[in-house]
Amino acid sequence: MSALRPLMAAASLAALTACATAPTPEPYVRPESPAPTPIAGYDWHFNRNADGAALAYGVAESDDVRLSLQCETGTPGLMLYKDVEDGAEPVIHLESGGETERFPAEAQPSMLSDGVLLSATADPSHPVFQRFRRVGWIASWVGERREAYAAHAGSEAAVESFFSACG
Fold first, then answer.
1. Using 50, 70 and 90 to split pLDDT, how confident is the model at 25?
2. Nearest of 86, 46, 40, 90 to residue 68 by alpha carbon
C-alpha cells in the first residue's frame, strides 16, 4: 500500500494540473443589433419638471409621439406609453441592441388616434433600457411590425439625461 501512495499522489497532481491548464470558455456576449437609421423629423425629446422627467420619440412640439417613457420624482420605476391600433395585444414589446422584453400593458381609448393607448410599468435597470441608454436607440414591436426609434447625432444626450434623472 505504501508503494501505491506516491503513484496516487502523482496521479492526483496530474489531474489537478490538467484542470488548471484546461482552457476557460469565453463568456457569452450577446451580439448588438446594428443601429437603425434616424428618421427625418423624428427624434428623442427630454423634458424635466418638478414632478419628474419624460423622454418621448416623435415630432417636436406635436402630438405625433411614437413612444414615451416617464418617471415621477420619488417613485421607483418608469411608465411606458405607446399609441397602437385598436385590437393590438396589450403589451409593449421593446428591443435594443440585442436585448428584448415584453411589458404587460393596460389599454384605454387614445385621445390622439382611433386606437388605444397602452401603458405599462418597468424597472429602469432592465437590460433593454440599459442597452438603450448605451446605444441611443430602441425599437417597438406591434405584432410583426417593428418600429425603430434612433437618436439623431447630438440628441443621444436626451436619452442619457432621462436615465440620469430616472434611474
1. low
2. 46
Task: List strands edge to edge, sheet with 137-142.
Answer: 99-104, 91-96, 137-142, 145-150
Q: What is the pLDDT of residues 98-124, one digit of tens each?
A: 999 999 999 999 988 889 999 999 999
User: Where along the chain do its domains lie?
Assistant: 43-166
